[in-house]
Amino acid sequence: MTSHVMCVLNAYLYLKELFSILMKKYSSLGQLLLDYRKVYAVSQIDLAAQFGVDIRTIIRWEKNETLLKPDKEEEMVDITFIPTRLYET
Fold it and tell me: Which domain, by its residues, includes 70?
């Protein structure tokens, strides 16, 4: 395959994955964050730095052991562009 075809194929696969996440209904913040990190190739360390929290906080969020504080909910929208209502039950 030519590099152009590979580029188009990779873009298609990325958009397909992104669309499936956007259409998915989430019952937990943890799964939403895991999917977000997968699609955007963001490590837990990088996400922790963006939120200004320790990596252990990200791990707890992903395991649904703790919830976001109200100030972090605003940051969630600003950083990820994911509205907090997506994961509330």
Answer: 25-86
